[in-house]
Specification:
The protein is an alpha/beta fold. Helix content is 45%, strand content 14%. The protein has eleven helices and eleven strands. The chain has an eleven-stranded mixed sheet with strand order 3-2-1-4-11-10-5-6-9-7-8, with helices on both faces.
């Protein structure tokens, strides 16, 4: 795999340099063609690289000690975009010094910096934050928006559907991903005016690289019955946090149940292969790497608490989007729908 190098904000996330460098190193062990621009404190990065033979020759360091705080307002972070590790990583994509940027830092700040530096694609109103969620099938489901846009009109939702389908074609291999709008019911009369208008536009559109299948309720997101779930950022973020919380609840409940007595511990040993499969499937590190779709460049957001395996997955998401040229895929798909069909809605 021959790809442009990936800029890594080595200072972002809960543990910063150690985990970010370890994750990049793990990704490179899986794909030895990966090259990196590691942005952060040079002394700390070099110390981390010493424990990963082979990474030094595949990495360049861009020294920077200024870090965006986890609770820092995006407006304040923007004013320091030229001095922070996050801002410099995104700027490397803008300048062509890297093909993609990966950061585990403040989501709002990363979105603001990315929008300012890379700009939204022509024909798109807003970028959206998309992520992969586990399902009962072998394929993950693409869900967007997950928090970048609190309020969305019908036109935004239609554009999110197009972007999500382009992403799903890459990760699922389906030529026409099954796409649905998140709603409070599956009947055509359910939902807000914007959701209904978006559904009407998607049903009427021809030439789209997707199968629009109407609505999906939140309890069906992980069933594997669709490939793309589209919603506004407010609803999407709530749904995502509810799913993550339910996954933690199930794993914690199983842990309590299997340690409550000697008999339960014996039962755990018998059922361990099954419980390990559940744990692996629900582990957010195995699905790490949210994407800002709709920008003139690739930016991937790693979860702040991700471990090295999670960071490696985020790096691989960035590489795959570069390899499959997600930006041009979205541009081509946008040309398949008439913008006026949802204008003003």
């Amino acid at each position: 795999m021959s790809l442009p190098r990936i800029a890594v904000d080595a200072m972002g996330g809960d543990e910063g340099v150690r985990v970010m460098v370890e994750g990049a190193a793990l990704a490179r062990r899986r794909h030895d063609k990966f090259q990196f621009l590691l942005v952060g404190d040079e002394t700390r990065i070099k110390a981390a690289l010493d424990t990963h033979p082979g990474m030094a020759g595949a990495s360049e360091i861009l020294h920077c000690t200024d870090v965006v705080g986890g609770d820092e307002l995006p407006s304040r972070a923007l004013r320091r975009a030229k001095t922070t590790s996050m801002g410099l990583a995104v700027n490397a994509v803008k300048q062509g010094d890297a093909g993609a940027a990966v950061s585990a830092g403040n989501t709002g700040a990363l979105m603001a910096m990315s929008k300012l530096a890379l700009r939204t694609m022509p024909g798109l109103d807003r970028p959206a934050l998309a992520a992969l969620l586990p399902t009962l099938t072998d394929d993950d489901v693409v869900m967007l928006d997950l928090g970048a846009n609190r309020e969305c009109n019908a036109r935004n939702l239609v554009q999110f559907a197009i972007m999500g389908a382009a992403y799903a074609r890459i990760v699922t291999g389906r030529e026409r991903p099954r796409t649905r709008l998140l709603n409070i019911g599956t009947e055509e009369t359910k939902g807000t005016e914007d959701i209904q208008a978006a559904a009407e536009a998607l049903r009427a559109a021809t030439g789209l690289a997707m199968e629009f299948e109407g609505y999906v309720e939140a309890d069906k997101i992980n069933r594997g019955e669709c490939d793309v779930v589209v919603c506004d950022g407010f609803s999407g973020n709530i749904a995502l946090k509810a799913i993550e919380g339910a996954a933690r609840f199930v794993t914690d409940l199983l842990r309590q149940a299997f340690t409550s007595s000697v008999r339960s511990k014996v039962g755990f040993l018998v059922s361990r292969p099954a419980t390990e499969l559940i744990r692996h499937h629900l582990d957010p590190n195995n699905h790490n790497g949210a994407v800002f779709l709709g920008l003139n460049g690739v930016v991937v957001k790693s979860h702040g608490s991700a471990n090295a395996k999670g960071v490696a997955n985020a790096v691989e998401v960035a590489a795959r989007l570069l390899e499959d040229d997600i930006t041009n895929r979205i541009k081509q798909d946008l040309g398949a729908i008439e913008p006026s069909s949802v204008a003003g809605k």
